């Protein structure tokens, strides 16, 4: 599935970009005058017009820059992440050794057992999952990623087929991406920056919607996990034996 | 102090208080916390380095797609279609479409779209509030899936993407409905 999406994004991006650029070269965009006006303001910051106004040459330049920027941005993210990961995983280790994580996991164990039936009580995955969900609720993005990656690593230790996702992993990812959010600080910040009279006003709506989408995520993941289409290929046989299912 | 200020104060103090709880508890349990911290922190480096190839792969595809201008044209086409079926009055709400489409792909891009909506319609308008809800209730699904699964070398993700996208769609639809009911 990720294969197809990856292919689709790149194919559409390049082919569509070429077509758009060619179209804009043959029939230059009508608001060219406006673009020139803006250009004087933004000339230093941004040499290229917005993607839908680019001509063929600018489009090529833009796609080129986009591809290279992915590499640069990744390294920026990773360098930052090394420190942040170390910090939060260090704190998690202290909390775990002190028995705090276990206490939290014990408190919520009925819910955890229902959501993640193949994670045994007291397994480190439980603690990491709980900490990740808490971090997401408080919108601590910094902490959520390291704890989430740690949770995946722990779930992988319970996985018999190391290349295939388990039901628990799928459930964790669905809960994680539907993100129950109690206090979305960053959004309040942006609203405040635009002089909102009440930056926190959408909080109730966000709680309502995230609760709903998380419930949908849990139910849909449960139902899809049972579908034969997504069954785990026969565990007893090596995956190579079922060649046609492998794609 | 308003409620918001209390919430803000709590947000500033949530991490320090958490750290304090952890170290006090660890001290009470006589855990060698410095050693524990260092042992845990060591894991961080491996994970951060391991996700590099997956991060490059997904960001690369998303950035190329963004740079082609397809997003803007989808919005234009939707606006045209809505006018043809006589819903031209609701044309402004179409500004939400790029947000709904961008959020599963890129957080930064979606933030840009949200800021644009705030700028154009004001953060306290119906669209501004609905955009805030939409932004707060969806995640950068593709990015998270590829990085999280990449970090443990899972190749077959089975039903994960389907489930996540259905939940995202439900969240986006619910954001519009809730926005309309509460602030419409």
Please sum up the structure shown.
The complex is a heterodimer of chains A (247) and B (184). With 247 residues, chain A is an all-alpha fold. Helices cover 70% and strands 0% of the residues of chain A.
Overview of the molecule:
The complex is a heterodimer of chains A (247) and B (184). Chain A has helices at 2-26, 32-42, 56-97, 100-107, 109-115, 124-137, 141-157, 167-178, 185-193, 203-226, 243-246. By secondary structure, chain A is mostly helical. Chain A has two domains: 1-86, no CATH class; 99-232, no CATH class. Chain A starts with a helix and ends with a helix. The relative contact order of chain A is 0.06. Helix content of chain B is 78%, strand content 0%. In chain B, helix 4 (70-84) packs across helix 5 and helix 7 (126-137) runs antiparallel to helix 9. Chain B starts with a helix and ends with a helix. Classes of the chains: A mainly alpha (247), B mainly alpha (184). Chains A and B meet through helix 1, helix 3, helix 7, helix 8 and helix 9 of A and helix 1, helix 2, helix 3, helix 4 and helix 6 of B.
Distance between the termini of chain A: 10 Å
Total beta strand runs of chain B: 0
Total of helices of chain B: 9
Main β sheet profile of chain A = none
Summarize the main sheet of chain B: none
The helix/strand series of chain B, from N terminus to C terminus, equals HHHHHHHHH
C-alpha-based Rg of chain A, rounded: 24 Å
The residue fraction in helices of chain A comes out at over 70%
Tally of individual helices of chain A: 11
What is the total number of structural domains of chain A?
Answer: 2
Total domains of chain B, how many?
A: 2
Q: Characterize the quaternary organization of these chains.
A: heterodimer
Structural class of chain A: mainly alpha
Which percent range describes the beta-strand content of chain A? under 5%
Name the average pLDDT of chain B: 85
Q: Most extensive interface, residues per chain? A: A-B, 111 and 104 residues
Low-confidence stretches of chain B: none
């Amino acid at each position: 599935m990720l294969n197809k999406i990856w292919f689709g994004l790149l194919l559409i991006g390049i082919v569509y970009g070429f077509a758009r650029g060619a179209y804009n070269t043959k029939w230059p965009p009508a608001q060219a005058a406006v673009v020139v006006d803006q250009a004087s303001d933004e000339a230093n910051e941004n040499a290229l017009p917005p993607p839908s106004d680019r001509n063929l040459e600018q489009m090529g330049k833009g796609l080129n820059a986009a591809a290279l920027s992915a590499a640069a941005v990744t390294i920026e993210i990773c360098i930052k992440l090394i420190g942040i990961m170390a910090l939060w995983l260090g704190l998690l280790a202290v909390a775990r050794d002190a028995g705090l994580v276990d206490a939290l996991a014990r408190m919520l164990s009925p819910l955890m057992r229902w959501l993640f039936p193949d994670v045994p009580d007291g397994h480190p995955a439980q603690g990491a999952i709980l900490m990740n969900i808490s971090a997401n609720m408080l919108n601590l993005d910094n902490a959520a990623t390291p704890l989430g990656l740690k949770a995946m690593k722990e779930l992988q230790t319970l996985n018999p087929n190391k290349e295939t996702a388990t039901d628990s992993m799928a459930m964790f990812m669905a809960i994680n991406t539907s993100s129950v959010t109690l206090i979305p600080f960053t959004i309040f910040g942006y609203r405040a920056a635009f002089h909102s009279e009440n930056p926190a006003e959408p909080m109730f709506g966000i709680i309502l919607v995230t609760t709903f989408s998380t419930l949908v995520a849990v139910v849909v993941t449960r139902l899809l996990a049972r579908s034969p289409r997504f069954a785990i290929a026969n565990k007893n046989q090596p995956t190579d034996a079922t060649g046609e299912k492998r794609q | 102090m308003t409620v918001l200020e209390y919430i803000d104060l709590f947000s500033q103090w949530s991490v320090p208080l958490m750290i304090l709880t952890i170290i006090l508890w660890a001290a009470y349990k006589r855990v060698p916390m410095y050693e524990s911290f260092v042992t845990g922190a060591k894991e961080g480096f491996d994970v951060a380095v391991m996700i590099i190839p997956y991060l490059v792969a997904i960001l690369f595809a998303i950035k190329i797609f963004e740079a082609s201008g397809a997003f803007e044209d989808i919005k234009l086409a939707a606006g045209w279609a809505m006018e043809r079926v006589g819903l031209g009055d609701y044309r402004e709400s179409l500004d939400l479409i790029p947000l709904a489409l961008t959020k599963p792909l890129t957080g930064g891009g979606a933030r840009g779209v949200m800021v644009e909506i705030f700028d154009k319609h004001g953060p306290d308008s119906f669209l501004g509030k609905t955009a805030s809800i939409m932004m707060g209730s969806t995640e950068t699904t593709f990015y998270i899936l590829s990085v999280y699964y990449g970090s443990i070398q899972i190749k077959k993700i089975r039903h994960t993407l389907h489930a996540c996208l259905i939940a995202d769609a439900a969240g986006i639809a619910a954001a519009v409905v809730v926005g309309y009911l509460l602030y419409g």
